Amino acid sequence: MTSETKAGLKLVAPPALYAVLLLAAPLATVLIYSVLTGDKGKVGLPVTLDNYYDLFKMKGGQNLLSYIAAGMPSEDPTASLWARFRDGVSDAIYIVIMGRSLVISMLVTFATVALAYPIAYFVSFHVRPERKSLWLFLITIPFWTSYIIRVALWRTILGYNGIVDNFLTAIGLEPANILANGVAAITITLAHAFAPFAVLPIFVSLEKVDRSLLEAGQDLGESRWSTFLRVTLPLTMPGVIAAVLIVFIPTVGDYVTPKLIGGGQVPMIANLMETEMLTKRDQAMGSAIAVAAMSIVAVISIIFVVWNRRYIGGKK
Amino acid sequence: MKKGQGLRGYAILYLLFLYGPIIILPMFAFNDSKVVSFPLSGFTTQWFGEMWADQNLREALGRSLIIALCTATLSTTLGVFAARASVRYKFPGKTGIMGLIMLPLVLPDIIVAMALLVVLLSIGIPLSLMTIIMGHILLCTPFAVAILSSAFQSLDKSLEEAALDLGETPWSTFRLIILPLVMPGIMASFLICFTISIDEFVVANFLGSGKPVLSSYIFGQFRFPAKVPAMLALGTILVAFSILLLTIAEYFRRRGIAKAGGNDTGGFL
Fold this sequence. Notes:
The complex is a heterodimer. Chain A has helices at about 5-35, 50-55, 65-70, 80-90, 95-125, 130-145, 145-160, 165-170, 180-195, 195-210, 210-220, 225-250, 255-260, 270-280, 285-305, 310-315, and strands spanning about 35-40, 40-45.
């Protein structure tokens, strides 16, 4: 081992040790807890997969998996297989919450990235170089101000007789009362909260685009729009992919927004975890939910990256 | 540049969307009504008085300040170690180690909080301000590393080599040459970590002992409609304070990059 290597390892040791002890070890603990048996604030043996099985629990004590295995028996013999399956799933409360979190996260990710791309493009291509960092600073400021206060204000903006409704009535439309639609209200609020996370990686990748390629594209007779589609967009896909991941992963686990905006009526994964861990004091079940949620998120992220791999590997 | 004009219009709308809540905040903080809705009914500073008279709020603020100061100091220190190591040295397992340190940036806060909570409970450490600080350091260190890495990156390696050639020890080189050059980055990192810690809610809520800090106090008060205007008054002050700190941090960050002769690529993160 060279002295350089040694010096590097010595230097990184304090933060690395901190992260191992307070992050890696706790995450490993959660993983282990998820296959243990939980009982009123304690966990113990035997090792079991019951927690994961219980994720499919339905209202009334049945389990979705055994319901499906039993051929989805129904009181209504005329109901189609699909209808019975849908009924079963809608009774499996954990699955419903998990699915809702994923759908909301995907909506938020799509909205955030789609809204962020033009602004990143504008700052990178149409703002004078010395003004760029001012624009980025302006875009990031709201992100650093109190999350709770911002979320609470969206209630005022979206709520009954709120600002959006006032505006709609003023121009002669019906008030929308978006807040009453929990999913829509949560999506808007989260898209607002995560905006800079999407703008910055896209901006960085746009800055790297060689401007002469664009001129070349136009010299060769492409229109502006097709140059964008065939040159700029593919070259900036790494930034878009980074933006998608950095928005998607944390939003799945957001706790505050469903609590304040949805009024607790539209819980997401984080709220479910809180209920299991703290209210029911079942740490094994809480851990299983955490592991399951993170695994699903990881799988979706990997599929997304693999699906777009040609954009990442293409540029050396 | 017709297309540029269209984009400029979009950019202004986008900023309006981003700043919407922050613009509305002071309107209601000074609005003479218990009900937070339009139309505004008149000007008052009553809510600021009510907020200031709230003893619990002041205690919560005190706790938050202690947490934020400790968190900012320790995260920035850990950040200096990690950033310096990752920019300057090559060592085995670097990607994995740096990945782990940066992980909380993408991990949902609730996962960080719950995992730490499970461990703390199982080894019997009582929840306190200390446990909140432990969690906040995890969340803030990645930001510190990101800011400090760009500060270390813009350092000219030949300055360091010159000092070593002239007989300085590695430590005195660090203290006399490197530290002064990255000082603006350190200030920026400290201020950013401080801001994150003050505002952070999830970890503070789950790893706290039940005595509220600023963010959990605000969260709790939102359940009572009568308390909302006073919370908005507090929010106005907090937002103004955050913007002030960030502007100072941005000033330091730019000065640091200029000092080291680098190019400004813009923005934190």
